[in-house]
């Protein structure tokens, strides 16, 4: 079943500059700028008087979900350049205190459950990672990069072949803002 026309529109805040070039959207705000490409999608973007319109023409029902996805991506970009995103992770250990350091685009986790070799988690994109006591703070403008970096850190401390009820060591996300 083809849908002849569908659109979504929303207001762009005054302190945010949005530019559209082909299928690439660039959002610039007080904290910085982000760029995202929507090439390969049947979406049409139009900016008029601080209102962004996202349109679809002659698409199948399955492709209709692209409207909401594109709108969410652009809104997250706007929120990123105005407020930013911060994830807080907590280091949990019972016996062996772990050491966490940021080195060359990686988070180095030493002495995790008494292991001799360190574990590494990749920092994605332009993300800042700070270690304050037992907290690891991941912050940046791009929600996808901040979330993926936090997930990489949490996944690096996943314990295999141990009973999770007894061994609850790891680094876990406890706050998103």
UniProtKB/TrEMBL annotation:
GO terms for cellular component: cytosolic large ribosomal subunit. Keywords: Ribonucleoprotein, Ribosomal protein, RNA-binding, rRNA-binding. Residues 12-84, 96-170 form the Large ribosomal subunit protein uL6 alpha-beta domain. Part of the 50S ribosomal subunit. Belongs to the universal ribosomal protein uL6 family. This is Large ribosomal subunit protein uL6. This protein binds to the 23S rRNA, and is important in its secondary structure. It is located near the subunit interface in the base of the L7/L12 stalk, and near the tRNA binding site of the peptidyltransferase center. The keyword RNA-binding applies. InterPro entries: Ribosomal_uL6-like, Ribosomal_uL6-like_a/b-dom_sf, Ribosomal_uL6_a/b-dom, Ribosomal_uL6_arc. It holds the Pfam family Ribosomal_L6. GO terms for biological process: cytoplasmic translation. One of its GO terms (molecular function) is structural constituent of ribosome.
């Amino acid at each position: 079943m083809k849908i002849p026309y569908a659109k979504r529109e929303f207001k762009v805040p005054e302190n945010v500059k949005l530019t559209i070039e082909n299928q690439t959207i660039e959002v610039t705000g007080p904290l910085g700028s982000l760029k995202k490409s929507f090439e390969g999608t049947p979406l049409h973007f139009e900016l008029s008087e601080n209102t962004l319109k996202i349109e679809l023409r002659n698409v199948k029902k399955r492709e209709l979900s692209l409207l909401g996805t594109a709108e969410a991506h652009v809104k997250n970009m706007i929120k990123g350049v105005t407020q930013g995103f911060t994830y807080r992770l907590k280091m949990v250990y019972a016996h062996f205190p772990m050491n966490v350091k940021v080195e060359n685009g990686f988070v180095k986790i030493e002495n995790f459950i008494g292991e001799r070799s360190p574990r590494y988690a990749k920092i994605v994109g332009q993300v800042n990672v700070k270690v304050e006591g037992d907290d690891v703070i991941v912050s940046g403008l791009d929600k996808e990069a901040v979330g993926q970096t936090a997930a990489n850190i949490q996944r690096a401390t996943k314990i295999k072949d141990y009973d999770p009820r007894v061994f609850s060591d790891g680094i876990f996300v406890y706050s998103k803002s």
